[in-house]
Amino acid sequence: MARIENNRVLTLNRVWQPIATVPLRKAMNMVFRGRARVVEAETFQLFTWDQWLADKAVPVDAHVIERDYLRTASLFVRKPEVVTLSRFAGYPNRGVPYSRRGIYDRDDGRCQYCNGHVRGKDMTIDHIVPQSRGGVTSWLNCVLACGACNHRKADNLPTEVGMKLVREPYQPTREQLFLQGIDVMKSWAPFIQA
């Protein structure tokens, strides 16, 4: 059975726009404290914590698909998959400003030259067209690189040192960034853009 930390919940603002995914534990805490309500994806019905327990919990001796439930001492509680905030929390900004963290997330933590995993503390950002040659710091000219690849490329163009990009850089939307590396659930489809 998957650990609770690995489960993600789609979070909507009060007007039902997707703004993030959060760990299941955090989503349940928000619902319990009244900061959010669970959205039943099939019916779009909203539930408070008490309503969710009354409607979506069964005795521990019931036959359920355990990956869809959390087990307590006496109950199986259905895992929420979508929550909506009780307060507005603003409109999501479709334009995403450039950031090192954004590059890391967009490139899924992988060096865009060797495809190796790069730990956050070891990340370097490479300018495809080096700044010394007029390259700018932007979504379309920067990629995540491991230290070895960034050092190898130095102030050259990738083609000058026989390197190729794993994929072309792009300017992501906010939605693309928060869904990057996340297993998107079928129940999220009505709330996210394809």
**Which stretches are low in confidence, meaning pLDDT under 50 for 5 or more residues running?**
none
Order of helices and strands: EEHEEHEEEEHEEHH
Helix/strand class? alpha+beta
Domain module count = 2
Q: Give the CA-CA distance, first to last residue.
A: 29 Å
Shape from CA axes? elongated
Could you tell me the strand content as a percent range?
Answer: 15-25%
Q: How many E-type strands?
A: 10
Mean pLDDT: 91
DSSP helix fraction: 10-25%
What profile does the largest beta sheet have?
5 strands, mixed
> How much is the radius of gyration in Å?
21 Å
The largest beta-sheet arranges its strands as 2-1-8-3-4
Count up the helices.
Answer: 5
Task: Write up what this structure looks like.
With 194 residues, the chain is an alpha+beta fold. It folds into two domains: 4-92 and 175-188, no CATH class; 100-171, DNA Binding (I), subunit A. It has five helices and ten strands, in the order ββαββαββββαββαα. Strands 2-1-8-3-4 form a five-stranded mixed sheet. Strands 5-7-6 form a three-stranded antiparallel sheet. A two-stranded antiparallel sheet has the order 9-10. A hairpin with a 6-residue loop joins strand 3 (36-39) and strand 4 (46-47). The chain is elongated and about 65 Å long. The model has no long low-confidence stretch (mean pLDDT 91).
